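Title: Prediction job returns without error message
Component: structure pipeline
Severity: low
Priority: P3
Assignee: unassigned

Description:
Job completed but the reporter wants confirmation the result is attached to the right record. Sequence as submitted:
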Amino acid sequence: MAGEPSCPEAGAASSRVIALCALSAFAGSSSVRVCDPMLPELARQFGVTMGEAAHVVTWYVMAYGLFQFFYGPLGDRYGKIRMITVATLLCGVGCLGAACAASLDGLIAWRILTGAVSAGIVPLSMAWIGDRVEYRQRQATLARFLTGVILGVAAGQLYGGFFTDTLGWRWAFGFLAAVFFAAAALMHRYRPPETGAGAPAGGLRLLGPMRDVARVPWARVVLAIVTLEGALVFGALSFVPAYLQQRYGLAPTAAGAVVAVFALGGLAYVAIARRLVARLGERGLAGTGGAVLGASFLAYWLGPGWGWSVAASLALGFGYYLLHNTLQTHATQMAPQARGTAVSLFASCLFLGQAAGVALAALAVDASGLEGVFAGAAVALPLLGFAFVRAMARRAAAARAA
């Protein structure tokens, strides 16, 4: 990649940068999920329905998805680590604004800003890893990076619920701002030099690289699958804390903690990812992941007690990363000549899918309750995993024939 020298494997310096990227990703993932346990309290405080309160989630992920279209080319042009550092700093500003918001509309506006600037963190980190780690080692390396993402999902649920129960929901955003500022300072201190000479002298190209990626047939398959994955998984997951509060009477902290067990399932995947890849292969990972995801939402829906939801969250995290890390690995290789743009499009589709999923789930919740949302995810996710397995099989057969 222009402006960023590549090497076949991540050495000691690259490992340090990957750890810093994981820290920024931790904060970014926390900001995505921090509002989930707050939804009942936000609805009460601002006098709106829970579906309307969920706009703080919907518009965040919408902004995140849309701004991927800018960060991919910017990362390819000016340097991926440089853009990650700037994005992390601005996320801290957005969280401070959210902490001071005087109305739901104001909170949504600051959430939109935070979503827009946080869009560069995870996909550009993945693209940077793709530049420096050869393909046969990339899935295991991405799994290590995902530790930050997974822990961030759990932390957002935990302290979103904790601060809502204790000092108030605004303190959750203040705490998150401090994490973002610390991550930005460390990234600025230790980031490697980048020349940023990737774009033509005439200026930054936005549509051209995206069009090049979209012309690749396999890229279109991967992007379609990840869009549906985001809609199905996170459209339902965003309402699990509210469901636990309503059905079992759990406090926001307890409901957030139950969902945060998702991270333990993800970490279990990271711990054995290398062995799973060797034993199951990519198709086995994707098919198993879809089945486990479906069973997890079935347990949320039909479980007779909240303890079943703990097991469901554990399985959900494991199943999600079985499927999603396979998709991520393909995303880093679907257009190597514009990897930053390709991975950003991948993340864009994931988060636009999430936005659509949360919006549709919110309508369903206001109309008929939460159970139908979980039932739909339980049926659709195994079918999605199977569809991806079939697509990989057809691609492999075409490659052998060629």
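Comment from assignee: result matches the submitted record. The chain has one domain: 12-190+204-401.
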